[in-house]
Amino acid sequence: MTESLLLTQPVSAPGVLLLGGAEGGLHERDARALHAEGYNVLALAYFGAGTLPPGLVDIPLEYFFAAVDKIASFATGKIGVVGGSRGGEAALLVGAHDDRVGAVVSVAGGGLVTQGIDYTRGSLLDILDTPAASWTLRRKPLPYLPYEVRDELRDQVEQREPVRLRLAFPDVPEDASAWRIPVERIGGPVLMLCGSDDQNWPSVEYSSAVGADNVELRIYEGAGHPLNGQPGQPYTDTLSPGPGVRFEMGGTPEVNTKARAAAWAATLEFLHENIGITR
After folding, report:
1. The pLDDT of residue 2
2. Nearest one of 55, 51, 123 to 86, comparing CA atoms
3. Domains of the chain: which residue ranges?
4. Helix or strand holding residue 203 (H, E)
5. pLDDT tens column, 218-273
6. What average pLDDT score do residues 181-189 get?
7. Which long-range contacts (CB under 8 A, 24 or more apart) does 49-53 make?
8. CATH (one of 3.40.50.2300, 3.40.50.720, 3.40.50.1820, 3.40.50.620) for 4-274
């Protein structure tokens, strides 16, 4: 499986780093769509592909900085970073630690550093019960907000019902400073797009927790988690496969289909306005 996909333009153009989420791998279809809009694009996998780690555990931020090096060698001006779900978390971290980034889009992401996902543990509950850092910087794990698995989730797993994974995430602590991503350090604006009925994790609450002046938060009422990516076929259900379970993503097929299209349009408009391509 490919670890990255670089699509360049024949003439000087802005660059975008594209990051997927907890599914691992890379998003080639979205990369090609952004390339068609006129950008140099680097779609980057950071686990679950090729020689990369099998899970979202101890991923060095330096790995992303090297990717910014690569896309910057082809691009003009500031770099845009687009990430979905846990990739939104990564995108904000990259922007906060690399001054070449001038615009960040987090789709169904969050502004707090959260616990890793050790897929080698097998079952969902084993994964959630295994402490693991998602990211490292200078070889040191970043502090993370640990899972807090509710009995309701354990019952859903036991009863083989669709699992609402947000039940594994704690409410935003009164003092979240230890885990808050310093998005105010990003050298440009940030767009955070979330569904109000996200059942995968509390993306609205975790995005609201950043509280920075350079952030615009848009909430799609009634939408669930699957907002990321170029619009495709309409959704027919609200479920997604997981490790031995089915995840309930929230929303409805109709609302999620419309919200995904709106989120993609908002992403393109934001990039066009902030890193150099205008329409």
Report:
1. 72
2. 55
3. 4-274
4. helix 203-208
5. 999 999 999 999 999 999 999 999 999 999 999 999 999 999 999 999 999 999 99
6. 98
7. 49/1, 49/2, 49/3, 49/24, 49/25, 50/1, 50/2, 50/3, 51/3, 52/3
8. 3.40.50.1820
